[in-house]
C-alpha cells in the first residue's frame, strides 16, 4: 500500500519556475531514486510529495487519492532529512516514539514497537541517550528508526547519507537497501551521487532543471539513455560525445561512446591519437587521448597496459555499444 | 614557551575581565556604601571609601518616612504582569514571523521597532489624557498596560531572533511525524526555545522593574512602584544622598537577587545563537 503518482505537478516560487511539470508513476514497494545536479529541484519535488511544500498546480495521488490539500501529518508518509532533524530535547527513545505518541497508540504498544525498531537498527543500548551524545551514523540510524517505526505508506529520504564519511556511507547504503527490501515499503530517495542511485534503486528518475529526463531501471539508463543529458550524467567517467562526422555516425548528429566500451592498441585501425595523460588505478587505467579526428577522448581499460604520456595509440569503439543522438539530443533507436 | 604565553594570556584576560566587571559594578557598590553613611559623610569631598562610621540609620528613616512594603508589591505586580501579558502576545507573534514569514514580515518587524525610536516624552500628553479619561491614572492595571506596550517591541524581537535559530527541519520532522500545529508548538518548539523564552522574561522583568518614566508620570501613591519610592528622596537641593542611596538599594535588591540566581540562564539566553 503506497503507490504514488504525480500528474502535471508544477512548482514556481514567485516568478521562478522550478518544476515545469512532472509526471511520474511510482509502484507500491519499489525503491525510486531521484538524481540530478545540485539545484535541479529534487528536494522541492520530494517536499511536495511530503506536503511540506504546496504544489503550484497538478495532482499528487497516494494510493489513488489526490493529496495536494492534505497536510503532511495526514499523508501517512515519513521522511528522513539530510540534517537528521532529531528532536534535541528528547532521548533516542523519545525521538523514535514521537510519531506513535502523536498517533495516540497505547504506551505498551509504543514501547514494543520502539524496541523492535531499535533492535533492527542496533540502537538498543543508546535508547536513553540524547541525540547530541551520538555519532553521525547513530543519529542517522535514529532518524531512520523514527521513519520506519510508524509503518508509513512510503519513506522519503533527502540525501540522508551525505553527511557521513565514505566508508560509513557504503555501509548505511546497504543497510537502507536491505531494510527497504525487508519491509517492502515504497521509498523515494534523493541523491546527487550516481553510485548511490545505481546501487540502491529499482528505478531511477533523472532530473534536469526540474524536468524528468528519463525514468527507468539503472541498467536501462546505462544501456539505453534516452538523451544526451542522461547519457552524460550516468556513468563514470563520462561518456565521450563525438560531434565531428566519422564513419560511425550513420546519420546521427552526435554519437556517444562510453570510456569502457573502447579497445586500445598501439597499432591497427581505429581513431589514432596521442596519450595526453594516464591514470593508473591498478585495477583500471584511465587514458586521456588527444585525437586529431574527433577531439579529446577518455578511455577506461581494465588492468595495466603499460601505456604512458606521449604514446600513440589506436582507439576502436565497440560497434554494438555506440549511442546515437539526433540534433535535439534525443537518442535514435 | 608557548605554554607560558598562554598562561600570560589567561592572566591578562582574567585581570582585564575583573577590572571591567568592577568598573561596571562600581556605581551599584558606591550606592550601597553611601547608604551606610551619614548625610554629612555622604556629602564629603573627597569621599571616604570604606573608613567611615557605618550606620543603618538611613534605612530606619526611609522605612519610617515611606512604606517600602506598599511599593514593592506594586513593582512585582506591574513588572511581572506586564511581562506575562507581553509574552502571551509576543510568543505567537514571533512564532508566526519566524516560521511562516510573508513578504511583509521584515517590514512589520521594523515597524514594530519604530515605536521604540520615539522618545516616550513625545507622547506623554496624549497618553496622560487617555489615562485620565479612562480613569487609569495611578492604577496598577494602567501601568501594567503601558509597560507591556512599551516593552513589547523588544520582546517580539528577542523571541523572533531565538526562534529563528531553531532549525525549521525539526519542526517539519514533527509535522511528518503526525503532529498538529498545536502539538508541534507544545512538544517541539517550546521545549527547544526555553532558554530564549526564559532570558526574554528575565530581561523584560528587569526593564519593567526599573522603568521610571511612565511609572513616575502616571502614578502618585496607590499604584506607585519602587521607582516612585526612590524618587521621593531626590529633592532639588540634593541633600539626601544617603537616604536616596538607601532607598535605591532597597528598590533594586530584589531584582539584583533575581539576576544573581538566574545569571547562568540569562547569559546563555543573551548569547544564544552567537556560539552555535
Ligand atoms: N523557498 C524557495 N524559494 C525560492 N526558490 C527556491 C526555494 N526553494 C528552492 N528554490 C529554488 O528551487 C531550485 C531547486 O531547489 P532544490 O532544493 O529542490 O534543489 P535540489 O535538487 O534539491 O538541490 P541540492 O542537490 O543542492 O539539494 C533551486 O534553484 C532553488 O534556488
Ligand atoms: Mg536538495
Automatic annotation (TrEMBL), chain A:
Coiled coil: none
InterPro entries reported in the protein's UniProt record: AAA+_ATPase (IPR003593), ABC_transporter-like_ATP-bd (IPR003439), ABC_transporter-like_CS (IPR017871), ABC_transpr_MalK-like (IPR015855), ABC_transpr_MalK/UgpC-like (IPR047641), Mo/tungstate-bd_C_term_dom (IPR008995), NA-bd_OB-fold (IPR012340), P-loop_NTPase (IPR027417)
UniProt topology in membrane: Peripheral membrane protein
Primary site of residence: membrane
The keyword Transport is assigned to this record: yes
Alphabetized Pfam families for the sequence: ABC_tran, TOBE_2
PANTHER family: MALTODEXTRIN IMPORT ATP-BINDING PROTEIN MSMX, MALTOSE_MALTODEXTRIN IMPORT ATP-BINDING PROTEIN MALK
Protein name (record): ABC transporter ATP-binding protein
Provenance organism: Vineibacter terrae
Classification of source organism: Bacteria, Pseudomonadati, Pseudomonadota, Alphaproteobacteria, Hyphomicrobiales
TrEMBL record, chain B:
Pfam family, one: BPD_transp_1
Localization per Swiss-Prot or TrEMBL: Cell membrane
Domain ABC transmembrane type-1: 72-262
The organism's taxonomic lineage, starting at the top: Bacteria, Pseudomonadati, Pseudomonadota, Alphaproteobacteria, Hyphomicrobiales
Record's keyword annotation contains Cell membrane: yes
Family recorded in the similarity comment: Belongs to the binding-protein-dependent transport system permease family.
Record CDD domains: TM_PBP2
GO cellular component: plasma membrane
Main location: membrane
Transmembrane segments: 12-33, 76-96, 108-129, 141-163, 184-209, 240-261
Alphabetically ordered keywords of this record: Cell membrane, Membrane, Transmembrane, Transmembrane helix, Transport
Protein's membrane topology: Multi-pass membrane protein
GO biological process: transmembrane transport
UniProt-recorded name of the protein: Carbohydrate ABC transporter permease
